[in-house]
Specification:
Elements lengths: L21 H30 L1 E4 L2 E5 L7 E6 L2 E7 L7 E3 H6 L7 E6 L2 E14 L3 E11 L7 E2 L1 H4 L3 E5 L2 E5 L6
Parallel strand pairs: 4-9, 5-8
Antiparallel strand pairs: 1-2, 2-11, 3-4, 3-7, 6-7, 7-8, 10-11
Length: about 180
């Protein structure tokens, strides 16, 4: 009968040479993978948004978005926004929270008839700039308390432009563009 001696190897306390615990390594790998997926989706969405907007020779084209709406990138008093083009809106409208954040003073209370019923808001003035060269300075806009995150671009601006819509594209001819 042969007996072999077994060596007992007690667990050594971890030191800096041993590296990170395996659980932390796994978490780090998953966190990095999650970050890469997030950044990839953000890049894809940015490319999609860019492909929905085109401006050339005084003509702006907006392609219908995945949500079925037309979006026009621009700014309100210098803050970047993505306007929702709303041909059914008489006036351009902002979320009240945005108007307050931008410090747009109220010029009085207004009543607005919306698809959801009558709502009360504030009349404010804002400088609107749309990508492609359309601007409206000190435009009278309606600030509504329950308006979604995107401001609405209404007929007060759109009515100043020559436009047509068909096959999922809205095409705007800017006022100073050669015809």
């Amino acid at each position: 009968m042969s007996l072999r001696a077994h060596r007992y190897h007690p667990t050594r306390p971890m030191n800096t040479r041993d590296g990170l615990p395996s659980g932390l390594k796994i978490f780090t790998v998953w966190a990095l993978l999650g970050l890469l997926v997030f950044l990839g989706v953000q890049a894809w969405q940015h490319r999609q948004q860019q492909s929905r907007f085109r401006s050339e020779g005084g003509v702006v084209e907006l392609r219908r978005g995945d949500d079925g709406h037309y979006h026009w990138p621009g700014t309100v008093n210098g803050e970047a926004v993505d306007f929702l083009v709303d041909t059914g809106a008489t006036r351009t409208a902002l979320p009240l929270s945005m108007a307050e954040r931008l410090g747009l003073p109220s010029e009085g209370e207004v009543r607005s008839d919306t698809a959801g019923g009558v709502v009360r808001g504030q009349q404010v003035r804002a400088d609107i700039s749309l990508r492609g060269g359309v601007t409206a300075e000190r435009l009278r806009v309606t600030a509504l308390p329950r308006l979604g995150p995107a401001p609405l671009l209404g007929m007060d601006v759109l009515g100043q432009l020559k436009w047509q819509q068909g096959d999922g594209v809205m095409r705007f001819t800017l006022p100073d563009a050669p015809r």
